[in-house]
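Subject: Sanity check before I submit

Could someone independently write out the structure tokens for this chain? I want to compare against mine line by line before I put it in a report. The sequence has 369 residues.
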Amino acid sequence: MKKKLSFLLASMLCITLALSSCSGSGGTTTDVASTPSSGGSSASPASDVEVHELILQNGDAAQGTPSQFLDAWIAAVEEASGGRLKIKAFHGGALGPMKDSYDMVKNGTADIAWGLPSMNTGKFPLTDVVALPFIGATDSLQASYALWDLYDSTDYLKDEWSEVKVILLHTNCDAPLMTNGKQIFTPEDLQGMKIRVNGGPPTEFMTQIGANPISMGIADVYTSLEKNVINAATSCGWDVVNAFKLYEQADYICDYAFHVNPYFFVMNWDSYNALPADLQTVIDEYSGYKALEIVGSRWQDVKAAAIAAAEEADCQYYTLTNEQLAAFQEIGATAREAWMADIDASGVDAQALVDAMVERLEAHADKAA
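---
Independent answer below. Compare away.
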């Protein structure tokens, strides 16, 4: 009898345990990009809360200004989500080179990416309006607010960014001109020089001058200057000059406010739509002007450090007089006219677009340092 009782009790215990294990904890982890969690800075969510994991592609240096901004943005978003969003950042091109960042988000290889429109030749011609030579964008915060304002308050840029969810469009500060062998005081001084420059209006500008523009990823600029593959470089913001120590391979660095580089910060639509509505709201909240608050003056602040590091490395810093600058600005106007002709041919009123950009640069002039 005791044996039967013992067997009955044991059987009931097994059934109870089996039922308990089938009930689970009620929580699941949705791995949107099939990658481990970043750990983040926010507190761990309760065990019955669904966690959504995203990956972020960044082709820029891990120690660079973009990475600092992205890490701060991730921390803010994770905290605002109560730990239900986990974003793993892959800096330094760990997932792929900068030139592939946009396509990686578009095809879902990454959920979110930061990068340069200029590395997608011909894809964002209207966004290039902020990169026109000497259009008046001389400060990262001023130009960033003006560019986002243009995107947010008009329809000019929306179509060419419709394939992705735009978190932010912003810019760096003006790009200096680095040269070896000689200082540059006139456009004629650049004629025949092999110069690294971004695609679009900056390349047209250098073509008009008579230089030999070369498209090149930022990671190759240092070695190319060192080996004389190029003897000049521009379209490298002060943050890039600082992070990649480009001043170590240049004799001179001219601060001539040629142009700024627009940047994109975008998200895959499927990844966004897979999130519950309240987490979509978190992403929305930390897009646009809220993201610009996190950007702050990071890009502008690094300029002084880059100039100091350049001078310490015996790379001579100099500026141009207004008279000298006027000759470059005249060629900039010619390059702008060539760009406007192409835009007009596409069916967009180029002059109206330029006027809208200039209007916003002037409206946000108070943001300039």
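---
OP: Matches mine. For the report I'm noting this point. The chain has a mean pLDDT of 88.
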